Amino acid sequence: MSNTGMNMRGKIIFYEEKNFQGRSYECMNDCSDMTSYLSRCQSCRVESGCFMVYDRNNYMGNQYFMRRGEYSDYMSMMGMRDCIKSCRMIPMHRGQYRMRIYERENFGGQMHEMMEDCDNIMDRYRMNDCQSCNVMDGHWLMYDQANYRGRMMYMRPGEYRSFRDMGMSGMKFMSMRRITDSC
């Protein structure tokens, strides 16, 4: 049985200016459009939990993983080119992690089942691309470069038949990491 539903609440505070200045917005769940609360967001503080933040509304665009800590100027720290426009709280998962990755869209080509982090799918599985996946248990981050580097995508439990159809055209996912309770 998955314990995803029994999660602890996260808390993130967004600030309009760098160094936690200006108006602020406190968030304890998903927010698809932060522009209704702040005109811009230049810094944030994660007090508890983990969050994915997005540079476009409705959980679109580039994604960034944020764990507990202070981000006084996250744009220069993380290489973001735009403000945070939406955020999603990542529920803590206490149980096993399982994900099947596929070489091609619609679960085609080579398939490998993962239960642990993988820093390089080419080295471990001799797979040079991952175009679809099925997340059975846990929450994962997928990276477009080996060794957990580059652009990332947050994966919740579910079937992902085509990363291209999800707006990730041209991205090759080369490493995957579990989001554990050590956030």
Description:
With 183 residues, this protein is mainly beta. It has helices spanning 74-78, 121-125, and strands at residues 11-17, 21-27, 43-48, 50-56, 60-66, 69-71, 86-90, 98-104, 108-114, 132-137, 140-145, 149-155, 158-160, 175-178. It has a four-stranded antiparallel beta sheet. A four-stranded antiparallel beta sheet has the order 9-8-10-13, with no helix packed on it. Strand 8 and strand 9 (108-114) form a beta hairpin. The chain starts with 10 loop residues before the first strand and ends in a 5-residue tail after the last strand. Mean pLDDT is 88; it is low at 1-7.
Per-chain topology:
Blueprint: E1 11-17, E2 21-27, E3 43-48, E4 50-56, E5 60-66, E6 69-71, H1 74-78, E7 86-90, E8 98-104, E9 108-114, H2 121-125, E10 132-137, E11 140-145, E12 149-155, E13 158-160, E14 175-178
Antiparallel strand pairs: 1-2, 1-3, 3-6, 4-5, 4-7, 8-9, 8-10, 10-13, 11-12, 11-14
What structural keywords apply?
single chain, four-stranded antiparallel sheet, 14 strands, 45% strand, disordered N terminus, Beta/gamma_crystallin, repeat, Beta/gamma crystallin 'Greek key' domain-containing protein, G_crystallin-like, eye lens protein
Give a summary of the structure in a few sentences.
The protein has about 180 residues and is mostly beta strands. The chain is built from two helices and 14 strands.
Order of helices and strands: EEEEEEHEEEHEEEEE
Query: Which radius of gyration do the C-alpha atoms yield?
Result: 17 Å
- General form: elongated
How much of the sequence lies in strands comes to 35-45%
